[in-house]
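Before relying on records like the one below, remember that each one covers exactly one chain. Contacts with other chains, cofactors or solvent are not represented anywhere in the record.
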Amino acid sequence: MSGAFYSLSRKEGWRRYVDAPARRQPDRLTTAQRARLGEQAREDYDEARHDWHANFGILRTPQLAAVHDELERIVFTNRQDPDRIRGAAVIDALPGLGKTTIANVFARGFDRAQIRRHGPVTDEGHERIPVFRVGLTSNTTLRTLNRMICEFYGHPATNRATAAELASHAVDCVLSCQTRVGVIDDVHFINPGRKDGLDVSNHLKWLANELPVTFLYVGVGLAERRFFADGLIGDNAVLAQTARRWTRLPVPPFEVASDEGRAHWRGLLKATERQLVLTHARPGMLTDLADYLFTRTSGHIGSFVTLITRGCFTAIRTGTETLTVDLLDTVRIDEASEQARNQLAAAFAHGRLATTPTRQRAAAS
């Protein structure tokens, strides 16, 4: 099984992610060409296709493009002097909508631009690290947050320092390496209603005050959890600093209730078709299944990619070499999509939903 093994929560892993060249799409061989391959060559070819389908290029969906436009505006206008507060961005959406991918891809592009413009070493001779990235856990405390930031940079004192010392080390790392963007994933694990969660939330504000960094947070259902209210309720909620400092960027799922939404959905299917390396793939292979694919995935990009990736694996393994309803029906994906499937199928069957544009349906009738 191929694939690289590294963590984006360490600078070495992040550097590999940022500097990795684009993967090369395997050639699409005909049945005759595949038949001429020896057994080992055919296994290698299939292995290359499995790896490609699990990692093909990022699909620039309307959701990704919209959030990236906002992030660019926020990051590139955060040019305030260190004595002024910088605004933060938070990507807040349901699971399976590509939040982390959107954040990572933006941060990777920013990192590449900074290195290209300013070089890999600062004027003081330190390694330039334009972006740091950490992911929180369900038991993140103030000390573990500081430790995770220090571990990203590879600071040697992470295991024996106090929380205050770790915070000082984290500030030193950011300033020395001239970091400009900090990505903090899974912030929904912070519960401002609990003391340890409130401590972490307040510490994030302190870091934002102390560091010349634009923070990019990623989380699930933060607005519904009243995360922006800092644990305050009633009239006191107006005192919440988070709601004033963070710009919330939602990521909606695909929808097919409007012609614009239908066009976006079919655009996703067409873009995905071009990425698939199956012998019997053809234009329209996915768009002909537009209703079915929406029924299976509820318009969630994560569920869609999982279904397609597993479907391609099955198509190659069984020799079918194409994606059909019968084949995809053998593939199970996340439970949320499976539970919503029957209800969506009924909506399509009764004409309450459709992926075909209104004008095209009118002409057909």
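The chain has two domains: 11-60+255-364, 62-250.
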